[in-house]
Amino acid sequence: MNLYFKYVAMLFKSQVQYRASFWLMMIGQSLTPLTTFAGLYFMFDRFGQLKGWSFFEAALCYAIIGLCFSLSETFARGFDTFSGLVQGGDFDRLLVRPRNTVLQVLGSKFEFARMGRLLQSVIILIWSLHNLPIELTFPKVITLTLMILCGVLIFSGIFMATASLSFWTVQGLEVANVFTDGGREMTKYPLNIYQRWVTLFFTFVIPFGCVNYLPLLYLLDRANGNELLYMLSPLAGVLFFFPCLLFWHIGVRHYRSTGS
């Protein structure tokens, strides 16, 4: 972990060398998602509610998934841009170093300007919690923490699985954005507003519903006797991450250098 934090410190120092550019990028990253949130606000302003969900309940859903994505995009960005390492032959250098390849790829790229999105999500999260009648008991605080941490694991797992495809395709596949950007946009709303097959897919295949929708029902006291199940449902993110990690190691064993 000491090496990981050294990676973080080194890349942070390099990115803040041009401070004006860094802060403008961060401000831009915080303002860009506002268009999506504005759409959410105006929809509820027009219709009042959506399948029994109020604006602040949906905003809490939006904030949590936005927080998960922004953290993953900031600290797991190396996997999102991994295909470039394979194409340029730079992954060969990582293999000869006496360190885990996952750690090295994680440390190859951090985009701290993306934390502007993180700031926006935190503000919406606090605003939503303030306007909802949620009593933040210790179990609910634990659940909220698990929602964020396990959500980060799901997005990072998708980035990792997508990066692993580069061992066979060399080039990154844009179709993977369906599960990252597409999954993020869909799960910013409560899953029960979609058709049943969509809800099932994003609950049992890619378990965004387990880190956002189901525990949200627990936070809002809508669990209807399933409190423990919904409280612990974010742990599905851990179960999702391990197959992605295994797929990565399989890809590393099948890696053949491009010779660049």
What can you see in these coordinates?
- The protein is mainly alpha-helical and 260 residues long.
- It is built from 17 helices and no strands.
- It has helices at residues 2-15, 19-31, 34-47, 55-75, 77-80, 83-87, 91-95, 101-106, 115-131, 138-164, 166-169, 177-186, 196-205, 208-211, 213-219, 227-232, 236-253.
- The longest helix is centred in the middle third of the chain and has 27 residues, at 138-164.
- It is globular, with a radius of gyration of 19 Å.
Q: Mean of residue pLDDT?
A: 83
Percent of residues in beta strands? under 5%
Shape estimate:
globular
DSSP helix count? 17
Order of helices and strands: HHHHHHHHHHHHHHHHH
Distance linking N and C termini = 31 Å
How many strand elements?
A: 0
The major β-sheet equals: none
Low-confidence stretches: none
Question: What keywords describe this structure?
Answer:
260 residues, mainly alpha
In short:
This protein is an all-alpha fold and 260 residues long.
Topology diagram in text:
Layout: H1 2-15, H2 19-31, H3 34-47, H4 55-75, H5 77-80, H6 83-87, H7 91-95, H8 101-106, H9 115-131, H10 138-164, H11 166-169, H12 177-186, H13 196-205, H14 208-211, H15 213-219, H16 227-232, H17 236-253
Helix pairs in contact: 2-9, 3-4, 4-9, 4-10, 10-15, 10-17
